[in-house]
Each structure stands twice: as structure tokens, then as C-alpha cells.
Amino acid sequence: MDPAEKDAIHNERFVRIICIGAGASGICLAYKLNRSFTKFSLTVYEKNPGIGGTWYENRYPGCACDVPSHNYTFSFDPKPDFSSVYAGSNEIRSYFEDFVSKHGLSHLIHMSHLVTRATWDEEKGEWTVEAKNLATGQTVESVCDILVHATGYLNKPAWPHVSGLENFKGIKAHSADYDETIDLRGRDVLIIGGGSSAVQILPAIQPIVRSAKIIIRTPSWMLPDISTETSTFTSHQIEEFVNKPELLMALRQENERTMNSIFTVYMKNSVLQNQAKALLKSATKHILREYDSVDALIPEFSVGCKRVIPSGFRFLRTLKEANVNVIHSSASSFNSSGCITEDGQYHEADVIICATGFDTSYVPRYPVIASGLNLQSEWSRSIMGYMGVGISGFPNTFTLLGPYTPYSNGPTLIAAEAQADYICSFIDRYQTEPIHSMTIRPSVCKEFTEQVATVMEKLVWTDNCRNTHNNSRVGSRVPTTWPGSTLHYLEAIREPRWNDWDFQYRGNRFAWMGNGVSQAEWDPTTDLAYYIRQHDDSPHLGRKARNLAIAKSGTRPARELHRQAKLGPVKAETMAYGEVGIEANEMLIDQD
């Protein structure tokens, strides 16, 4: 009797997947699954009415990306018609919406579904996920074999922990949950915060408000503005990008090569770090040469400890406008009409905008229960994540853009792609082997975190500043960004370390072998002599050789290692007089 197809080696079983979140990483996973897998179901729950994640929620005045637009796309899906070098939030959100439509992913996404609980059943080897349909109020319950948390960490507004804020009778808004119907014309506005959101908000609202005060607790490093001539793409340039994809490809690659050449700027006291610090300090002093408190706007910590803010000189110039006042202090309390700062001054306002960032604790908003443990409690004590994708002790579940993702070290979407590929390799193994559960070992996470902590002592994120990676509390935890460059991360995550995981099987673990028939023998179009070749084109067997082949070793002119001419002393002098724009911005942008 002939064998059945199900008896072939690596026969695929049906696998059920739930992904929580339809931001950039969630839709990337959906695309990867749709492209490479059959015999699966995917349900994506998204709490918002639309896709895009942080780019759906962030709509404050002046909101834009701080990465060059053409490099804030998936590596395989460029957008030739971006209107400007740094795209606004609406345009970025539109890119993700078009991506979902283009690749036919809409039917997989359930909008306005807020996940309220996820529970692991050890006996059945499956997750039960509860979600509330925000449109109907009904609770829906779904079951899956693999659960992916693609909730990111830039989606939970962090309101100031200051007494009396609830007593303020005027308009309160947060940059991460901004109400676009607020009319600021002729208003007295108080902005709390001096980070990237505040830097975009103030110049956008200054021309229309009666007065604007901004409370800056600690300064940030600023990059010079892109000149007016280069900040937007002309219709001719856009037409060229559309009709000549090789031009756009060259721009994207050059941007990427530049950003990937400067990781040592994030190393304490490195040559690039010292050059960058001198360069930006000189440039800031020049732009604020008439400002009374110039030193208060120059950080003492390393460049990169907090997000370096591109096009920040527009903000610095705005500080000198007649209707703008800067308070170098911090909010200590609020009352019905304003705010008292720690220097004892009182500031009235019609509108308070809290540009105070996000809760980056990584503690999930919903209970995640397995083996009697709740991830909310576990991560409130200590984050035991693994390489941006694993959760210690919780089976068959992964994170996208989780703890120890390279948020500050390169383009985030490239990291999301690599993580989606990594998770898909586990889904592939689960689908083609009799696996019951896959769990990252707690002892492995402990060793991983110890290694991260050791390396972090040499990197700028452990300097004396509040940043998203320490949840805005100096020394509160090991910084949760990746302890290396983006290229370092891609190499580290490219090949799963299966021994770091505990695999439990249903029945005989070798049942995947089937009854002796290969997959090739079950496809009538395959070449049954595929292994006969004229020359050896197989992958290299050594890891270094494999990685260098992927990195296209030998295809580029030799470069000087760990140096960047654009950050040299000559450039520092040029920048001080405001003549440099896009080149400097390509250097130092923190890629959150």
C-alpha cells in the first residue's frame, strides 16, 4: 500500500497562533506567517480602532519620526513617495495601513479588541486568551498553541507622579494620548518635559498660543536642523524614487551604512563619543549664545544616554521667542489653575500638556498566567526577558520588541523583522515535530541578564541619566536595550540557540521522521536529483564564514573601522555655525 502524505518526514500539523497588537511588529509577524506557512490560523487582537500601534496613538502637534523616512520601513517594502526626510505620524501610519492592505492581512486583525487575560493550560499545552470587544462590550475567548505579545513598550502614557494633577480644572493632555480637537489658539500652555515629544510640540504650537512655558528637569542632546531645502522631497525627487527604484535603494543603503558605522559612539569615552560630545556642545552653545541659561540646556551625561533629538535646533531657537519661557526645574504639585515647581514658582495655565513619555516597565497590562505565576508580578520585581523575544518560565509564548531589543542601536523595524523570523523558526519546529511546549529556561535568562549587566557598564545607557531603558529612574535596573549594535543583534539572533530552551514532547520525540518518505517525494514538481551540482553552492559550515557571506564581505571598499569623518573636529567647527544638516542627523539619532 502506498504511504499517505501525512506519513512524510516533517509533516505539518495545524498550529493556532494569537498575536496581541497590530503595530509594526504585529503586522510584520502576520506578513511572515502568511508568506511562509500554510496549515495555521492567526488572530491578531488590537485594542485601537486602527493599526499602527504607537503611530496610531501619537498624534500630538509636530509628531514625526526621528529616523530618516526611507529607513523607517520594512527592509523588503520601501515607500518611494515619502514627502519629507522625517515623516509625520499620519504618513507613517498610512504606510502601515497600506502594508496591511497590500499584503492582504486585514482579515486577520480584530480591531477594538482589548486583551484582558491570558492563561496557560499545561495539560492541554495551549493558551486561552480573553479579549473585550470595545465596540459591543462583549468578551470573546480564543485558544491558541502559540501566543505572541506584540504590544511594544511605547503605548502606555506615563503621567507625572505629582500630587494634585487631578485637581487641575483646565485642559489636560498627554503627548501619547493627545486629543486633536484641542484648540490652542490664544491659550496659555504649560508643557511638562524636555524630551523628544516636547521638542516637537513646542515649535509646532508656539506661533498660535498666547504663551508657552516649558518645564525642563534635565536637558537632552540636540542635533542640528535639516535645512529647509533638504527637509522635504520635491515632486521631481519623489518621481525619481518611484520610477528609478535603484536611486531609492542607494539612499536607503547609504543611510543604513552610516548609522551602522557609529556604534562605538555609545561606548563611554570612545573616540566617537568624545567627538560627538564636543561637536554637539559647541553647536548648542553657538545657537544659544544670547540665551541666559545656556549651560542648563547642555547635558553632563554621555551623548546617547538619553535619546539624541534630531532637528533640535529649531526647538532651541523657539526657546528665545518672546512668548516662550523655560523653567529649569520640575513640577512638585498642581492645583485647579496651574503648577508649582520645585523652585517655589507658581505657573498658571489654560492647558497642560504632559510630554512625559511612556511607562517602559514592560509589565503587561493584562494578567499572563502560567504554572501559578502572573507575568505582571514577575516582571514588576525583575525583568527576566531573553533577547527581545523570550519570557522566562512561560511556555509557548514570545515577545516582539520585548526587553533587550536594540531600540537605541539602530532601526527598530529591522529588529522587529529579525524577531519575527526567530519566532517563525520556533513555529516551524512546533508544526513539524510532536512538541507539547517550548520554554526558555530561567537559569538561561539569569545568565543572559548577568552578561547584559556586565557589558552595560561600558555603555552610555548606564551613565547618570534617566532614560526609557531604565524606566526613567537612574540605576533602577539593568538597561533593557540590547548591549551591542544592530548588526551585533542580527548576528546574535539569526540562529536560535535551541539548548537555551526546554522542549517537552507528546509521545516519541522522533515521530517527526514519519514512515520513510521525504517532502520532495510528495511534490510532483520537485527535482529528485536536486543535490547534484556543477559546483559547491551550499552554505558555509563555519559560523563566521556564514555571517560574513550574509554581510556580503568583499563587496565594498575598505573603510576605517570605528571612525566617522562626519564627526571629526573639522565638522564640529562647521556645525557650530549651523551649516550642517542631514549628515549630522544621520549620525546620532536614537532609533526608538
UniProtKB/TrEMBL annotation:
Pathway assigned to this chain's UniProt record: Siderophore biosynthesis
Keyword Nuclease on entry: no
Top-level taxon of origin: Eukaryota
GO MF annotations in UniProt: oxidoreductase activity
Top EC class of this enzyme: oxidoreductase
Catalytic activity field: L-ornithine + NADH + O2 = N(5)-hydroxy-L-ornithine + NAD(+) + H2O; L-ornithine + NADPH + O2 = N(5)-hydroxy-L-ornithine + NADP(+) + H2O
SUPFAM superfamilies: FAD/NAD(P)-binding domain
Cofactor(s) it depends on: FAD
UniProtKB keywords: FAD, Flavoprotein, NADP, Oxidoreductase
EC number(s) per entry: 1.14.13.196
One family name in Pfam for this protein: NAD_binding_8
Family listed: Belongs to the FAD-binding monooxygenase family. Belongs to the lysine N(6)-hydroxylase/L-ornithine N(5)-oxygenase family.
Name by which UniProt lists this protein: L-ornithine N(5)-monooxygenase [NAD(P)H]
Lineage: Eukaryota, Fungi, Dikarya, Ascomycota, Pezizomycotina
